[in-house]
Design goal:
The protein has one domain: Electron Transport, Fmn-binding Protein, Chain A (Pnp Oxidase, Chain A), CATH 2.30.110. The protein starts with 14 loop residues before the first strand and ends in a 9-residue tail after the last strand. The radius of gyration is 16 Å and the shape is globular. The protein is mainly beta. A seven-stranded antiparallel beta sheet has the order 3-2-6-9-10-5-4. It has a three-stranded antiparallel beta sheet with strand order 1-11-12, with no helix packed on it. 12% of the residues lie in helices and 40% in strands.
């Protein structure tokens, strides 16, 4: 069966879902969910996030040179979805979603307290990748709240998500 080329990426589902939080020079915070995410290097630690060029997130990353990748768990699924709604520039998706901003340790962008893990990043590069830009970030600090029951949300498509469940080992 031939796949519709506008939906080919769905065969790669589920995908890790993150909330990227940023701030602009005026102190306006922003957060948006992304599932086009992947690690690209261990040493140095580099993460890639693909996003469309019209995102406030991208404008803030370009302006400030940093961002935080927040790993959401099941408890904040509805807030994650709220952060994906288009809001006017200057209106904080974090506050609109009822999430808590937390001062990051090494970057100007805030962390989201309710996340299960955080990667504070400095912008490394921006690469054109078709209808998305690929943002590479150097992870300068990575932390987790270290709770055993935490499972990151995985995006299937549209409003559908899942959680990691069964672990399989190859022999």
């Amino acid at each position: 069966m031939q796949l519709d080329l506008t939906k080919w990426y769905r065969t790669l589902a589920p995908r890790t879902t993150v909330l990227v939080s940023t701030v602009d020079k005026k102190g306006n915070t922003n957060a948006a969910p992304f599932s086009f995410v992947m690690p690209v290097s261990i040493n140095p630690s580099v993460i890639a996030i693909a996003m469309v060029s019209t995102r406030h997130t991208l404008a803030n990353i370009r302006e400030m040179g940093d961002f935080v990748v927040n790993i959401p768990g099941e408890k904040i699924l509805s807030q994650l979805w709220t952060c994906g709604k288009p809001l006017p520039k200057g209106v904080s998706e974090i506050k609109e979603a009822g999430l808590t901003e937390e001062k990051a340790k090494k970057v100007s962008s805030p962390r989201i307290k309710e996340a299960i893990a955080w990667y504070e990043c400095k912008l490394r590069a921006e690469i054109e990748g078709g209808d998305h830009l690929v943002i590479l970030g150097d992870i300068i600090i990575a932390e987790s709240n270290d709770q055993e029951e935490n499972k990151p949300l995985l995006h299937i498509g549209g409003a559908d998500f899942c959680l990691p469940g069964k672990v399989l080992k190859s022999e």
